[in-house]
Amino acid sequence: MHTPVTIIGAGLGGLTLARVLHVHGIPVTVYEAESSPAARSQGGMLDIHDHNGQLALEAADLMDEFHAIILEGRQALRILDRDGTVLLDQADDGTGGRPEVQRGELRQILLDALPAGTVRWGHKVSSTRALGEGRHQVTFADRGSVVTGLLVGADGAWSRVRPLLSTATPEYAGTSFVETYLFDADNRHPAAAKTVGGGMLIAPAPGREIYAHRERGDTLHTYVALSRPLDWFATVDFTDAAAATARIAEEFDGWAPELTALITDGDTAPVLRPHYALPTGHRWDRVPGVTLLGDAAHLVAPNGEGANLAMLDGAELGKALAAHPDDIEAALSEYEQAMFLRSTEVATYEGAELHSIDSDDNTAQRLIDLFAAKGQPADQAPN
After folding, report:
1. Secondary element (H or E) of residue 31
2. Would you call 163 helix, strand, or coil by DSSP?
3. Lowest-pLDDT range of 41-55, 57-71, 210-224, 277-291
4. Which of 85, 145, 208, 333 is the most buried (most CB within 10 A)?
5. Segments in the chain forming alpha helices (H)
6. What is the pLDDT of residues 95-140, one digit of tens each?
């Protein structure tokens, strides 16, 4: 294949695609809006699954590097009732298929595996347009433009490439996270640290949940999930950390203090993360010379699969292009049909309504029952 590939977005999906293309000797350039790899925090923990994310890393020939960043013991899981009763205490015995890593460290091994200059930082897309015959022009804010014969949008929820293929836009999914961190938790927040344990904690209830991860060292990363309209969150003054913390904690009145401490004892100001989603089963007709992957293609509210699916998208697209070096359209069609199917299956899995935060069945015991019925381990986490 001689047509260089242009990727918009240096997230996990775009970088996985770039790495797989590099392994197969296919020229590629990635354009990223961020000014550098360290421009912002890359988020928290990811459980990388053996049936998708790890397959992508195998295709990228990065399994050794992946194993080197796994945080041992972090597959441990506790599920608690709102009164603090521990209903599930699952140890990490090393046999689970979802080892945990820090998102930023995973991104870094992908960056390190690409030739210098592959990623062009500080290139924020302002517009894209079709030129005909499968060629597209991408214009960057204050950085000129490029013309490409193969354009891949790996640029997330608010993709600037998506309009070339689809009129769909993300809509608010009805839930949001409020994030905070507890640092040096074993010493400074011992009750919360003991409650979380060595891995992840989930405390679900109808309309609200508390998740917490033990990240590298003894940092606890809390995700408070609430099913509320955006107008409700607009009444919370997130510029006043103390007031915002108190308001969010009110939603958990009566919960065990060791759980609410994950909110009230935060060492960082609470950050609102609204969840958006594209229509379930989002797809498009084949358009020559352009495609999407990851959240740009199939954005959903966090369900534990987002990063894994994005990486698998990147790997599968890279393999398809390598397998059809003289027929780009055949490669894109093969990739898209498989991607549409797997992303829809993940979004509509059996039991999804039961596990919905809005369900009256969204309780600790029902969550345990759901995993048992599906014959799956319970270490599922948002990402």
Report:
1. strand 28-31
2. helix
3. 41-55
4. 208
5. 12-23, 53-59, 63-69, 103-112, 185-188, 190-196, 230-234, 241-250, 257-264, 295-298, 306-323, 328-347, 352-355, 364-374
6. 778 899 999 999 999 999 999 999 999 999 999 999 999 999 999 9
